[in-house]
Design a protein that fits this description.
Helix 1 crosses helix 3 and helix 7 packs across helix 8. This protein has a domain of 136 residues: Tetracycline Repressor, domain 2. Helices cover 68% and strands 0% of the residues. With 200 residues, it is mainly alpha-helical. The model has no long low-confidence stretch (mean pLDDT 88). GO terms for molecular function: DNA binding. This is TetR/AcrR family transcriptional regulator. It comes from Pseudomonas hamedanensis.
Amino acid sequence: MRVSKAQAQANREHIVETASVMFRERGYDGVGVADLMAAAGFTHGGFYKHFGSKADLMAEASANSLARSLTSAEALSVQDFIDMYVSREHRDGRATGCTMAALCGDAARQSGDLKSAFADGIERTLQTLGDKYPHAADAPAGEGRTRMIDLLARAVGAIMLSRACPDDSALADEILAVCHAEMTASLPVTESPQDATQDS
């Protein structure tokens, strides 16, 4: 039975979404094409109607999940980002959590296309949250971006270190608690417009 173009596109998107979840949960090498297609509800042979290789799917699925994470981050302040990201809920939700925390280590060993997908996702995240980073009016240009690179690296590292510990380990929680507290404390206290009006 012939599949319409619209249905073929919907099938492709479903495969990409399924792969995005499975890759974050198991890593790139922990997911085979046969298992992936079965989880998506399709036959193994149907994979190559949509993708040239597993590597192509890895890059597309990663770009997809990074874009979804960015959409969520757009509504957050930097403090909200810290609260959401450096949390036990995120640490335990590997399959639905941030692609950077789940797959950065794997991505470092993959193709240039996959690394480019990660670089683009990281860059967009830095732009989105860097613009929101609280800073004084006379702060040097680019300070928000510089501080956001530092903060993002610490947030991703905190989740990766915590996940490397057993789930019931006190250290797993300690890493999250310490990093969350230190990251929050590092945010500058800025004067609100209301405070400025009251002082004048």
